[in-house]
Design goal:
GO terms for molecular function: ATP binding. It comes from Solanum stoloniferum. One of its GO terms (cellular component) is membrane. By secondary structure, the protein is an alpha/beta fold. The chain contains 20 helices and 44 strands. Helix 3 runs parallel beside helix 4 and helix 10 crosses helix 14. It is globular and about 95 Å long. The C terminus is likely disordered.
Length: 1006
Amino acid sequence: MAKYVYNLNFSTFDGSSFLSNIRENSTHHKGLVTLQRQFLSDICKRKKKPMFSVDEGMTEMRDAVSCKRILLVLDDVDSHDQLDTLLEMKDLLYPGSKVIVTTRNKRLLRPFDVHKLYEFEALNRDESVELLSWHAFGQDCPIKGFEVCSEQVAIHCGGLPLALEVLGATLAGRNIDIWKSTMQKLETIPNHQILKKLAISYESLEDDHDKKKFLHLACFFIGKDRDLVIAILNRCNFYTVIGIENLVDRNFVKISESNRLIMHQMIRDMGRDVVRQESPMEPGKRSRLWRSKDSFNVLIQNLATQTIQGIILDMDMLKENDIVRSSFSAIDFKKHKTKNFLNYPNPQRGQSKQKRFGFSPWHLSDAKEVTNELVLETDVFEKMHKLRLLQFDHVELQGSFDVFPKRLRWLRWSELQLECMPIDFPLESLVVIELQRSRLRKIWHGIKFLKYLKIFDLSHSYDLLRTPDFSGLPNLEKLILRYCTSLIELHETIGYLESLVLLNLKNCKNLQRLPDSICMLKCLVTLNISGCSSLEYVPMDLDKVDSLRELYADEIAVHQMVSTAEEVQPWNGFLRSWMCKGTICPKVSHISLPNSLVTLSLAKCNLSDDTFPVAFNSLSLLQNIDLSQNKICSLPKGISYLTRLQKLEVEGCEKLKSLIGLPNIEHLNVTNCSLLEKISYQSKSSSLKNLLVSNCVELVEIDGNFKLVPLRNTEAEMLSKLGLWNLAPMNNVMINLTSNILSYYRIHSKRWTPTRKTKKVVLQGLYQPGVFSTFLPGERVPSWFSSKFTKESCTSFKVPTCNSRIEGLSFCIVYKRSTIRLSPSILRPPLLTPPPRISPLAMRKAQGRPLRYRPVENKPYESTFDCPCITVNNSTQSLIWSYQPLFYGVPGGREGMMWLSHWKLENQLSSDDVIEVTVTAGDGITVMEVGIKIVLVEETKVLGKPGCEVASAERDIVNPFWDVNLVHASSKDTFSVRLPPTYRSIRAAHEPFIEKALERNMSDYN
C-alpha cells in the first residue's frame, strides 16, 4: 500500500525517496549509512558518493530537505535508532513535504508529531475471495466448482492479504481434491510460508518475557477478559499490563470494547506453531497443550512431562468428533489403566461403572447410543510440576489429589460432576477458579484459606444451595453466582471480603435476603440482583456503600414494606415482580440509593409514573439509566437534572407518550415505544450519537431533527414557495404515510423490526433542518416549475444572472408504484454512516453521470418501497447535497404521489453556478416527472394569486427546524462529513481516492 501511494504521488514533488525494508537493511554492515546514501541519491538526483558515518549523513540530509518539497516513505521501521537517524531533519522539512512511515510497532511513532495514524483493516469476505482468485485463478472470482472452497480458504485467512496471496499461489492450478485436503491440513498445521513471514514479528519482540506471554495468550486466552488474564499471568511472574500494551502496539492483540483480548487467527496459528515446533511428534514434551486431541492422547497414554505449563481438554468436543472412541480402539486398556473405570451409563450413580461410561473394548459399536464419559486417573498429572493453567470441560477425575500439581494459577472446570470439591484438591495457589455449570451443592467443607484467589465464578451451578465461609478469601475481587437458581443463602462472612469489587447474583431466584454485612464492602463497585424474584430483605444501609457505581435490579417490583418494629424500610421493598403483573404497584416512598451510582438498571420492575420509587435529584453522577419495559408515560421526575447522563434506555415502555426536557445525552433507545410522539431536549444543540427508534409508529417529532405537522398548520410563506395557495379543498384528503427513520439512524438492537408500517393520515408537512417537504396525490408537475424532465434521471442547468439573492430551490417529484425492485449499481450509503470504501476505478466511473440501476429480482411492490432521493451537485462550488425524507407518501394502486420539497441554500447557490440535479428512484417505485424552481428572496409572493397574503421571505421564520442553512464541507475536507439526517455534503470527487487519503494525512505540513 505504501508503494502504491508513493507511485501515485511522487511526480508531484520536487524530490522523492522510498526506503524499503528498513528493518532488514539496517542490520547489514553500515546499514543506516547505506540508507542515508540512498536517500541523498534519490533526493539530489546524483550518484551515491562515499559516506563514512551516520553523523555525516545527517548533516547532508539536513541540507538536502531544507529547500525542496519532498515525499519520503520509510518502510518497515522497527527501532527508534532508525527513525532518529532518518528523520532527525524533520523540523527542517520544506513546507508541503510529506513523510509516510510503515511499522509493525506503533509505539515507535509516539515521540513524533504524527498527523494521522492509519491501521490497515482486514479484508472483508468479498475482497478476500477476489484477492485469492487473482492469485489462484488469474481472475477476480473463483472458477466454476471452486466457489465453496474459495470461501472456506478466505474465511481461514481472516482477511489477511499475505495469507491470501500465499495460499492462492500455492493452490493455483490444483484440482478440487487438493484444495479440500489443504484445508484439512491447515486446521492442524498452518502454511509454513505464511508462518515464516509472520514469525518475523514474533522474533522482533523485545525479550523472552513478551514472547512467553504472547504464547500463553495465543494458546489459552483469546477472547478472555483482560482483567482476568492480568490477574492470572501476574501470578505466573509476568509483568502483564506493560506486556499486553507492548503486544497491542505491535498489533499482536487488540482489546475489544467489552475488554476482551482479540487476536487474528493467523497470528494465533503462528504462536501455536512456535509451541508445536518444541516437539513436533511428541505433544507431551511441549510447554502448552491447547488441542483437546493432543491433551487427551497425552493423558490417556500417560505421556505427560514436567515441561507442560498449561492444558485444555474438552471431552465433549472430542466425542462430537468421535476421537475418543477411535483412540480407545488402538489402546491397550490394561497398560494404560483404563479397564477398571470404563462403564456404560446408568441412571443410578452407585451402579457399576462398567455400565456408566459409554466405552468397552468388547462392544464399541454401542458407544454412540450412550453418554460418552471417561474418568481419568489423577496420577497422570503427577509429573506436571510446572502446570499453571488448566481448563477442563466435561472431564471426570478419580483418585487421590495429593499428587495433583500444587502450583495451579487458573482452574476452569465446567460441567464438574462432583457435589463438593475434594478435600485434598490443591486450591491454595489459585488466582482464578471458574466452575460454571457444575453439579456442586456445597463448594467445600469448613474454611479454606486461599490468599491469592481473586476471581470465583460459579455461574449456572443450579444445585448450589449455600456459599462457603468467605473469611479465608481476603483478596477476592469478583464473586459471580449468576443463575445459581437453588441458592438460598449468602454466608454472613461476605462482609469480610474487603477487596470485593463485583458481586453478581443475577437470577438467583430462590435467594431471599442479602446479609447485613454486605454494607461492610467498602470496595464494592458493581452489584447485580436482577431477577432475584424471591428477595425480601435488603439492608437499609446499602445506600451508604459509597463505592457502589453500578446497580442492576431488573425484574424486581419495588414496594414499601414495614418491619416488625413498624418502621418504614424502603430498601426492603423488593418482592416478586410477577406477583403484581397486570396491576399497578401502590404508591411508595422514594428509596435511598448511593449517591455514587453511575449506572442504574430498573428494567421490567412494573414501575409507573405514580409508583416510581427513585429520587434522581440526589444521583448527580448517574450516566446510564435503563427503565425498559415499565409502565411509565413520561420522563420520570429528576432525570432532566442529571447533567452527566449519557445513556437512557426505555425500550418497550408501551405507555410512554413523550420524553420532554431530556438532558444532553449521547445514546437513546426508544425501540418498541409504540405510543411515543415527541422527544425534546433541554439544549438546542443535541450531542445524540446513537438513536434506536424502531417501531415508534406515533413518533412525529425529535427536537432538532424533524417535526411532522398537519399541512394546515404550516406557515403560509412556506406553502407559497411550493405553490400551495389554497388548502381548503385539501382538508379532507388522506394519504398513506410511512417512515424512513431506520435508514437514518444506526440500529444496534437485536430486537428491532425493519418492517415499515404505513398509516392513513391527513396531509402532513415535514420540517427538517434546511428542508421542508410534503406529499399529496398528484399525476403531473405544476406548470410554474421552470425546469422539468421526465425520461432522464438527471438534468443540469446554469443559474441565471439576477439582481436578487437566491433563497433556495423548490422541487416537485411525481412517482408511482413499480412491480420491479431496483438496486443501484453503486450504492449510496445511509446519511448518518461513514462512506463505504470505493476503489479509484469505481469513483471515476461514478463521476459526471447519474447512478445506474439494474433489476435485482421481480418482487411485488408490497415487499419493499423506498422514497426517491434528490442529489444536487453544484460543480462550480464543488458542493454536493443528497436528501431523502424521513417520512414519505405511498401511492395507492396506479395513482401518482407528488413530493413537494423546498431547500434553503442562500449563499451556497449563486448566479452562473452550474447545477446538476439527479433523482434516484427508490425500490418499488418509478419516477414519472421532476420539476425544479429557483426561489429568490425578493419574491414576496412566490407564484401567488392576486389577493393571497404571503409573509415576506426576509422575515425570520419561527420554526427552528427550517431556519438552518444546508451547510457544506470545508475546502480541505476530501471525505463525506456527518451532518444532521436531512442532508450530507461532500467535496466533489475529482481526484483518485488514494491521493485524497495522502492529502488529508499530511495536510498539517502545508
